[in-house]
Amino acid sequence: QVQLVESGGGLVQPGGSLRLSCAASGFAVSSSYMYWYRQAPGKERELVAVITSGDGSTQYADSVKSRFAISRDNTKNTVYLQMNSLKPEDTAMYYCSRSRVYWGKGTLVTVSS
């Protein structure tokens, strides 16, 4: 049974950092494309970052490039999203996904002073 559980969200001031975690079970994160998406209030869900299976190549939305980093720890079967230099417009519910088929319930990130 595939399960994805996000954690690490919270309230942070502009310019701050957070690290989100996505703990996976029922499959190996190294064997799938793993995604982080986000959805702000009143907006559509948007892709933030992806890490491929195998060599773990990464891609990012233009809006987060150079500020966010996706990674995985195969021993912990967990995917991470390191978020630096956070802006108010990064405020959203962040979701982890396996292959855009399975989804977690999300973790809320609020960037505000």
Could you provide a short overview of the structure?
With 113 residues, this protein is mainly β. 0% of the residues lie in helices and 50% in strands.
Keywords, please?
113 residues; 0% helix; mainly beta; single chain; 7-stranded mixed beta sheet
Q: How would you summarize the topology of this molecule?
A:
Layout: E1 3-7, E2 10-12, E3 18-25, E4 34-39, E5 46-51, E6 58-60, E7 68-73, E8 78-83, E9 92-98, E10 102-103, E11 107-111
Parallel strand pairs: 2-11
Antiparallel strand pairs: 1-3, 3-8, 4-5, 4-9, 5-6, 7-8, 9-10, 9-11
Mean pLDDT equals 97
Count of alpha/pi helices: 0
Give the biggest beta sheet. 7 strands, mixed
Structural class of the helix and strand makeup? mainly beta
Query: Alpha-carbon distance between the termini?
Result: 40 Å
Which residues form runs of ≥5 with pLDDT under 50?
A: none
Question: Could you give the order of the helices and strands?
Answer: EEEEEEEEEEE
Helix content: under 10%
Indicate the radius of gyration in whole angstroms: 13 Å
What do you see in this structure?
This protein has strands at 3-7, 10-12, 18-25, 34-39, 46-51, 58-60, 68-73, 78-83, 92-98, 102-103, 107-111. By secondary structure, it is mainly β. The strands form two sheets. Strands 2, 4, 5, 6, 9, 10 and 11 form a seven-stranded mixed β-sheet that branches. The chain is globular and about 40 Å long. 30% of the residues are buried. The mean pLDDT is 97. Helix content is 0%, strand content 50%. β9 (92-98) and β10 (102-103) form a beta hairpin.
